[in-house]
Amino acid sequence: MNLALIEARKAFRNKEIPIGAIIIKDNKIIGKGYNQVELLKDSTAHAEMIAITSACNTLNDWRLNECDIYVTLEPCAMCAGAIIKSRLRNVFFGSYNNNDGCVSSIYNLCNDSRFNHKSGVQGGILNQECSYLLTS
């Protein structure tokens, strides 16, 4: 999660909402990203989406079955959908997102039995550090 916080600080320095994400496979970073919505003028340029694209490019595959994502804020519906579609094994997040969190707080897309893939979810990792950055 500390590495995801480094990505989040990049977003903060660029006057973006400070959220960062990394994707790990076999203890190696294969993808990373930070929010770039304002920079790219793209509402889909969330940290998770950028990290997923980066990881898919690294592996030259859209399937991220044996990979885990670490993100500083609980993913929204769009990002949770991308997590399911890319078949990430686990989601580890820092701060809970009571406004639009869709892997725990409002809903858990990652464990909905109607989807063909599920991801493990664990929240509250380095919650204080992640929350502090979001409120700075």
Major sheet details: 5 strands, mixed
Percent range for β-strand residues: 15-25%
Oligomer: single chain
Q: What's the level 1 CATH class?
A: Alpha Beta
Distance between the termini: 18 Å
Low-confidence stretches: none
CATH architecture: 3-Layer(aba) Sandwich
Number of strands: 5
Number of alpha- plus pi-helical segments: 5
Secondary-structure element pattern, one letter each: HEEHHEHEEH
Return the CATH topology. Answer: Cytidine Deaminase, domain 2
In CATH terms, the superfamily is Cytidine Deaminase, domain 2
Overall spatial form: globular
Mean pLDDT value: 97
Q: Helix share of residues? A: 25-40%
Provide the number of structural domains: 1
* Class derived from helix and strand content: alpha/beta
Give a brief description:
With 136 residues, the protein is of the alpha/beta class. Helices cover 35% and strands 21% of the residues.
What features would you describe in this structure?
The chain is of the alpha/beta class and 136 residues long. It has one domain (2-135): Cytidine Deaminase, domain 2 (3-Layer(aba) Sandwich), CATH 3.40.140.10. Helix content is 35%, strand content 21%. The chain has 5 helices and 5 strands. The chain has a 5-stranded mixed sheet with strand order 2-1-3-4-5. The longest helix is centred in the middle third of the chain and has 13 residues, at 47-59. It is globular, with a radius of gyration of 13 Å. The relative contact order is 0.18. The model has no long low-confidence stretch (mean pLDDT 97).
